[in-house]
Amino acid sequence: MKTVQITDVEFDFEDGFHTLSEEAQEKVYDDIVGNIFEIDCDPEEEGFDEFEYLICEEITSETGWMVKQFQYIMIETKA
């Protein structure tokens, strides 16, 4: 299990069904940036594509919005 902290994210707020105000979009952004997620995947064994896909899924699950792109840092944890 790896731990990551989200440092930046861009959402797709144009889903065709809802329109969020600029203020609401900023709240979604602020609610995610800085969050720490534990990802049940070892990127060295399963590959970084799968690892980053799972990070994206965590963010989408947390917010309900699709992610266009994101940045993160890996956090070292003691076993």
How does this model look, in words?
With 79 residues, this protein is an alpha+beta fold. The protein contains 3 helices and 3 strands, in the order βαβααβ. It has helices at residues 22-32, 43-46, 48-63; strands at residues 2-12, 36-39, 66-75. It has a 3-stranded antiparallel β-sheet, covered by helices on one side. The mean pLDDT is 93.
Determine the strand fraction and express it as a percent band.
25-35%
Q: Give the uncertain stretches in residue-range form.
A: none
Q: Compute the gyration radius: what is it?
A: 13 Å
| Rounded mean pLDDT score | 93
Task: Describe the structure concisely for a colleague.
The chain has helices at 22-32, 43-46, 48-63, and strands spanning 2-12, 36-39, 66-75. With 79 residues, it is an alpha+beta fold. The model has no long low-confidence stretch (mean pLDDT 93).
Spell out the key features of this protein.
elongated; alpha+beta; 3 strands; 79 residues; 3 helices
Break the fold down into its secondary structure elements and pairings.
Blueprint: E1 2-12, H1 22-32, E2 36-39, H2 43-46, H3 48-63, E3 66-75
Antiparallel strand pairs: 1-2, 1-3
